[in-house]
Amino acid sequence: xxxxxxxTLPSDPEVQPINSPTRPRLHRIVxxxxxxxxxxxxxxxxxxxxxxxxxxxxxxxxxxxxxxxPASEAYARQYHSWDQxxxxxxxxxxxxxxxxxxxxxxxxxxxxxxAAGATAFACAQKSYNGAIGVDSKGVPCGTxxxxxxxxxxxxxxxxxTSRITHATPASFSAHVLGRDSENxxxxxxxxxxxxxxTVDLMFGGGACEFTSNLTEHxxxxxxxxxxxxxxxxxxxxxxxxxxxxxxxxxSDAELPLMGLFAPDHMSYxxxxxxxxxxxxxxxxxxxxxxxxxxxxxxxxGFFMMIEGxxxxxxxxxxxxxxxxxxxxxxNQAILAVKEFVDANPNTVVISTxxxxxxxxxxxxxxxxxxxxxxxxPEVIKRVQHSSQYLAGIWRKEIDxxxxxxxxxxxxxxxxxxxxxxxxxxNPTDEELERLMSWKGSNKWTEELAYDLTDMVxxxxxxxxxxxxHTAVDVNLYxxxxxxxxxxxxxxxTDIGDFIVEQLDLNLEDITERLKSHxxxxxxxxxxxxxxxxxxxxxxxxxx
Length: 543
Prior knowledge:
Blueprint: E1 27-31, E2 35-37, E3 47-51, E4 59-64, H1 70-84, E5 98-103, H2 114-123, H3 144-152, E6 155-163, H4 167-173, H5 182-190, E7 201-205, H6 226-234, E8 237-239, H7 242-247, E9 257-260, H8 280-298, E10 302-307, H9 310-316, H10 320-343, E11 347-352, E12 356-357, E13 361-362, H11 377-381, H12 387-399, H13 405-422, H14 429-436, H15 445-460, E14 462-463, E15 469-470, E16 474-480, E17 488-491, H16 492-503, H17 507-515, H18 525-528
Parallel strand pairs: 1-3, 4-10, 4-11, 5-17, 6-7, 6-10, 7-9, 8-9
Antiparallel strand pairs: 2-3, 5-16, 11-16, 12-15, 13-14
Helix pairs in contact: 1-10, 2-4, 2-16, 8-10, 9-10, 12-13, 12-15
């Protein structure tokens, strides 16, 4: 790990982060003597060491802003500064804890996917695109979550806005050759794993991976009901609704606890019905409270991974409105976590991205004329729903339309989809013709969403180069106990190494336990290709 101690942050004490009433307060950390250190994570603040006989158990919070690149941060900052009239010096909560950057390539490509990216954090090893908790040769690798549980008796948690079986949370809690094996991932997560149950709390979406294929909305290929198996075999408490979530009292919550609040991914923030689904910030706050109470009772710390999953998914669709709302919600979660760190000094939070998605740019040339140096945030302000949501509505409307297709459906398109949904009241004839031609085209609804997002992005003068990932260094943020060690530019595997160092973990021992188990005997380099993981065309790659 690099011990470079330089700061990448501005030191203007007048700069205030968005939605944060004050600069971060003095951060007390357990130590042996009183002294003041300069050059903390927040430039211009001081860190006070307060004498205490026994250090408190340490907590590590790993936050992952999936698909979030540097341009996306500037975009979100500029948009919210404009929207709230805060001026150019305004900062997002993430801006206040910037310490460096992370390099992202995988072992199989200079452009990583989320599976290899998360495995680098979890196992502190590079692996191939599609790998879930296995190394570059397809051999299971011990994760920081598993070692924290088994070697340090720490409590562990996963909080996401995707399916809980999706690539990022899976890489910390399961071992499969390919990310599409989500049925197997779900089984391992509840405890059918050579290591036994290693996760104490799971909040997110993806209930479909746990329900029998005899039931509605199931994603399973078999009749297993993993919710019932989780309760009967491992003592899980299962929550499925917003009401269930609200009723959870952190002071007496029973672990292990699983709250899956959507059949598939959680809704985009811009579409979310708060009466039906909790937000990322709400889930993160309650999860922290639950594990904090429980860990203090047993005298240990905890490890938690929190992911803003849908930042990435909005970027895959090139949806600038959904993208900025997801980024803003992630920043609200960051703010909540920073407050937790301030109240629990022997805690460190690390936040970074696994990769950038979309090749996003602020500024776009439309046509051959030299472009103006501007972009139009008012276009984003008018958008009321994600393009994915609107594409689904439009698809249903055109599929159900009768013989009077042109007149009836065109009015619905112009008023409900474009004007009310996207805030666009000046569609061109070419745009209308392209959207109207969808009936009978047999194209994916996702492709329809692409057309809608392009209408918004062109008017806002925002650019995208791909619906996939790109190879850029992503920002690295850290706050709290020994976070200064992460200053500078790092490989993504260094973040895993940092967590190992902080918690005194032994990933090699976990790896040896996994390798010796019969269920992993068939794993290895010869079976990687058969698992369909050598391609980027995963079943859910566009999500």
